[in-house]
């Protein structure tokens, strides 16, 4: 038994960090009525002890009598951690502590302890700045140009609301910060601002930008006090903060530095892996100018210089340590790394070629062509990482691959399999994400276009699967899915998935998945009625990969918690595609409301996206394929993009992706007459039903530009939409039909021709085959001059399209009274937005939660027409009439005179004004002119006035 005990001690010693000594630490807490110190202190003690570097004792000064009962001997400790906010210590106790510090003691001051002892000048010297009232010394920080400030003016110390923070490292070479990235996420916590004090002998190690002061306020700093060392942190409001990796690391490293003057504790992998960030020059040199982004973001095409080629990237994901994986349609799974250390990933490495798994001995992988690869594992179209394993969805199975510490592939094994499939080009396994319940969720693409589908007695095709944590039990979670490329799971554990328009799906969709839900696309064995989507995605065609930006990620603009959707774009239009941003809110009944805006137009044919620990979004651009066969071409194509929040980025890359106020030539009313005369309605619906031979045209103008529409009419075979391939059915009696498959199952094929829809029993079918060419004949615009062609195109563009712009002035994407207001944006030529002014946030009422304020105007480039403009104002500063008065002019004509919001609506209440204006010189310009104090506006709507019928 003694030998066994010694063995345990020896093993324990090996797994503990190897340090010369354990540093004795004393935590002093107590009396803080604003913070739950009784719960916080154990987390501080644990954060130190679990490093193996400290031995920790706690002294609770819960009342003044505690000191007389037995004051600590400070000389016994290498550092004192102060999380105390209360009355002054007894004179002898303070004298002992002051002597301890002057003789070389260590001190760590956590969060609210910065507010204690406001009149103690020696303590003020120890901390340099703290929570103090106006006039009690200087406040320090950095302005937004990076210049250090030291200002004796201003108000009392305060803090922002509890939330997630981006912390900026200021001195990366300091022992405490060495290994931390330039920017790191922390929270939820409070960001202190306007801290005051003597501001001497201080090194500011890290800061956070305050939304209140617009100053980069100190978050972490050190102070040299006589021979002593002091580390201060404003972080640590409650246990949510003190148990986070960012707090635990900065706190324990700060405590070690205060105690020993050096730091041996490592930075957590998820922080260290963030690595070098690209410089502004590096980012700008790799921005893709063809990608139009809404907001201050740089769309950077990664400069992949070496390693295996990207060949139709299908899925992309990141580990918590920042290792990026991307899968090729041809079967290779690659990692992407930054090898030249400029901050941008530049090299791919083969993790594994999954197409070789399962091949017979001696057989090689076929070279990519227009024939789908096989018979190895095929089409890796879904990927996720968990606990050291990469899970990948293939047509045949979900397989998991061990990710070794060096990023290479270890063992691999089948995780789940057993569903029906064939090697048909439409048999994919999508999604692959772990839910909050520990189960893996995945999607099987429908087989309704498969000429010979595999038997499916359980109705698993076209469904979402729920797979047990061990992979052994598979159940159908939801049914009626068509081409649902991906799913995303929010922090509440709710599941969402994208799905594509066509044959049973009248729109491009975002759905909220619930148990036994039926989502309407030819459901097999449904147990519930169809459920409508929560959003008709309008940003672009064919929504594919989707991912929530983590609520902890405040680095990617104000998008934390939002859903981002990769959109493939129109079939055959290889330059089409983009990204949608969706903000979801959940009501008391559990129902979600969704609002959407175009995040970017381009790059073309994006398939998937993911957020990395750095806070940036990585996007896989699929490139071009053989469209009819959905197979990779022999020549590799595809890219990976990295979207970086960059407030300084050139305005040409921060434009709104579309401007519906600027119309192209043509008169829609005349085009409708041509549409009827040419019998277009024989094959096309315009109401979203999609029940005829050709595609439905409703909302087509939202997702396809005029060049694409023109090509689709003049050369329809150039971009045939999936579901509308020309199919020839040969029956066993020798007869043939040419049309399209609307749906199919094991018993029948629903076949649409120009004149009818027919149910063909499977037992009567000899074969089905896709034949070249389009069901739509060419030359339908013959005899139409340019003006008439433009009229026809203008009519198609107008279907389902509202000619309106709505902006949330000074704010982000928001939905008010069933209308979506897009994020505020700066004006640039050809678009719309603000000129001048600043953003102000103040009210909790959605209509007036933010405003544009100061000296500003708005310009909307617009076609010559009449427009209705609706402005919403609110006042949450001035409480009395006459304190803020301003006027509004539209194209230099005053439309609102001497507006006094408090007088007309009252304090904190929205006020709406509507007027009409004609575009002049290709624009509508709204000027806001101060009479008394600065003007402000919260919501702006500009919409075309439709002519009377």
List the uncertain runs. Answer: 1-19
Question: What Rg is obtained from the alpha carbons, in whole angstroms?
Answer: 32 Å
CATH superfamily of the largest domain: TolB, C-terminal domain
Mean pLDDT: 89
Helix content: 10-25%
Q: What is the CATH class of the largest domain?
A: Mainly Beta
Q: How much β-strand is present in the residues?
A: 35-45%
- Main sheet: which strands, in order across? 2-1-3-4-14-13-12-8-9
Give the CATH architecture of the largest domain: 6 Propeller
* Number of DSSP-assigned strands: 59
Q: What distance separates the N and C termini?
A: 96 Å
Organism: Luteolibacter arcticus
Keywords: Heme, Iron, Metal-binding
Pfam family, one: Malectin
Domain Cytochrome c: 666-800
Would you give an account of this structure?
The structure is a single chain. The protein is mostly beta strands and 949 residues long. It folds into four domains: 17-272, Class I glutamine amidotransferase (GATase) domain (Rossmann fold); 280-653, TolB, C-terminal domain (Neuraminidase, 6 Propeller); 668-798, SH3 type barrels, CATH 2.30.30.100; 804-944, Jelly Rolls (Sandwich). The protein is built from 14 helices and 59 strands. A nine-stranded mixed beta sheet has the order 2-1-3-4-14-13-12-8-9, with helices on both faces. Helix 2 (37-49) links the parallel strand 1 and strand 2 (54-60). Helix 10 (668-677) crosses helix 13. Residues 1-19 have low confidence and may be disordered.
């Amino acid at each position: 038994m003694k030998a066994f005990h010694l063995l345990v001690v020896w093993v324990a010693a090996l797994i503990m960090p190897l340090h010369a000594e354990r540093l004795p630490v004393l935590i002093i807490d107590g009396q803080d009525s604003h913070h739950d110190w009784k719960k916080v202190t154990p987390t501080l003690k644990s954060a130190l002890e679990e490093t193996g570097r400290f031995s920790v004792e706690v002294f609770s000064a819960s009342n003044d009598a505690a000191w007389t009962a037995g004051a600590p001997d400070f000389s016994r400790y290498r550092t004192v951690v102060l999380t105390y906010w209360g009355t002054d210590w007894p004179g002898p106790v303070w004298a002992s502590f002051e002597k301890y510090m002057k003789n070389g003691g260590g001190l760590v001051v956590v969060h609210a302890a910065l507010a204690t002892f406001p009149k103690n000048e020696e303590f003020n010297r120890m901390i340099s700045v703290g929570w103090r009232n106006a006039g009690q010394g200087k406040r320090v920080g950095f302005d937004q140009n990076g210049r250090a400030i030291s200002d004796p003016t201003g108000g009392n110390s305060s803090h922002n609301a509890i939330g997630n923070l981006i912390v900026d490292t200021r001195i990366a070479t300091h022992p405490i910060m060495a290994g931390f990235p330039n920017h790191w996420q922390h929270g939820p916590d409070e960001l202190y601002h306007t801290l005051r004090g003597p501001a001497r002998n201080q090194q500011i190690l890290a800061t956070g930008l305050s939304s209140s002061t617009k100053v980069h306020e100190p978050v972490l700093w050190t102070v040299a006090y006589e021979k002593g060392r002091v580390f201060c942190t404003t972080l640590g409001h409650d246990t949510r903060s003190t148990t986070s990796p960012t707090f635990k690391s900065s706190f324990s490293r700060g405590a070690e530095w205060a105690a020993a003057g050096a730091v041996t504790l490592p930075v957590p992998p998820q922080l260290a892996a963030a690595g070098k960030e690209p410089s502004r020059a590096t980012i700008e040199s790799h921005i893709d100018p063809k990608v139009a982004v809404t907001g201050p973001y740089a769309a950077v095409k990664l400069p992949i210089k070496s390693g295996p080629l990207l060949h139709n990237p299908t899925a992309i994901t990141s580990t918590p340590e920042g290792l990026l994986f991307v899968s090729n349609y041809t079967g290779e799974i690659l990692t992407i790394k930054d090898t030249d250390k400029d901050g941008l990933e530049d090299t791919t490495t083969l993790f594994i070629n999954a197409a070789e798994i399962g091949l017979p001995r001696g057989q090689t992988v076929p070279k990519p062509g227009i024939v789908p690869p096989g018979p190895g594992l095929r089409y890796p179209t879904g990927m996720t990482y968990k606990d050291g394993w990469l899970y990948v969805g293939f047509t045949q199975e979900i397989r998991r691959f061990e990710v070794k510490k060096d990023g290479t592939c270890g063992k691999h094994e089948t995780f789940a399999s057993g569903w029906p499939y064939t090697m048909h080009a439409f048999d994919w396994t999508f999604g692959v994400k772990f839910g909050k319940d520990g189960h893996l969720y995945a999607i099987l693409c429908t087989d309704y276009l498969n000429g010979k589908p595999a038997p499916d007695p359980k109705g698993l095709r076209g469904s979402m699967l729920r797979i047990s944590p061990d992979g052994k039990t598979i159940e159908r979670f939801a049914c009626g899915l068509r081409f649902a490329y991906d799913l995303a799971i929010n922090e509440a554990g709710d599941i969402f998935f994208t799905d594509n328009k066509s044959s049973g799906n009248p729109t491009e969709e975002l759905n909220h998945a619930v148990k036994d839900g039926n989502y309407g696309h030819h459901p097999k064995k449904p147990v519930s009625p169809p459920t409508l989507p929560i959003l008709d995605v309008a940003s672009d065609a064919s929504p594919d990969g989707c991912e929530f930006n983590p609520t902890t990620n405040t680095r990617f603009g104000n998008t934390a918690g939002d859903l981002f959707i990769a959109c493939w774009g129109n079939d055959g239009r290889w330059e089409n595609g983009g990204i949608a941003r969706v903000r979801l809110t959940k009501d008391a009944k559990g129902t979600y409301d969704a609002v959407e805006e175009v995040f970017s137009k381009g790059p073309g044919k994006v398939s998937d996206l993911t957020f990395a620990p750095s806070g940036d979004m990585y996007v896989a651009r699929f490139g071009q394929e053989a469209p009819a066969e959905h197979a990779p071409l022999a020549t590799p194509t595809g890219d990976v993009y990295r979207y970086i929040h960059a407030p300084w980025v050139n305005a040409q890359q921060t434009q709104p992706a579309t401007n519906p106020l600027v119309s192209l030539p043509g008169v829609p009313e005349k085009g409708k007459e041509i549409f009827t005369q040419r019998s277009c309605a024989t094959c096309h619906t315009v109401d979203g039903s999609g029940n005829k031979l050709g595609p439905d045209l409703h909302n087509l103008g939202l997702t396809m530009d005029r060049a694409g529409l023109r090509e689709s009419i003049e050369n329809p075979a150039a971009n045939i939409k999936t579901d509308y391939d020309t199919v020839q059915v040969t029956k066993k009696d020798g007869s043939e039909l040419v049309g399209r498959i609307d749906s199919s199952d094991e018993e029948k094929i629903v076949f649409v021709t120009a004149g009818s829809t027919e149910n063909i029993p499977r037992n009567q079918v000899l074969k089905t085959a896709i034949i070249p060419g389009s069901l739509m004949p060419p030359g339908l615009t013959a005899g139409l001059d340019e003006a008439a062609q433009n009229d026809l195109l203008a009519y198609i563009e107008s279907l389902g399209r509202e000619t309106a712009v709505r902006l949330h002035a000074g704010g982000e994407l928001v939905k008010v009274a069933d209308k979506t207001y897009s994020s505020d944006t700066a004006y640039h030529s050809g678009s719309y937005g603000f000129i001048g002014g600043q953003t102000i946030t103040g009210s909790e009422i959605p209509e007036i939660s933010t405003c544009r304020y100061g000296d500003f105007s708005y310009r909307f480039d617009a076609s010559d027409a009449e427009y209705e403009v609706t402005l919403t104002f609110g006042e949450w500063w001035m409480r009395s009439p006459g304190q803020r008065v301003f006027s509004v002019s539209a194209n230099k004509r005053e439309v609102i005179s001497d507006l006094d919001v408090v007088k007309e609506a009252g304090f904190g209440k929205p006020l709406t004004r509507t007027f009409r204006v004609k575009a002049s010189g290709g624009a509508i310009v709204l000027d806001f002119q101060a009479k008394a104090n600065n003007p402000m506006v919260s919501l702006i709507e500009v919409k075309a006035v439709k002519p009377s019928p």
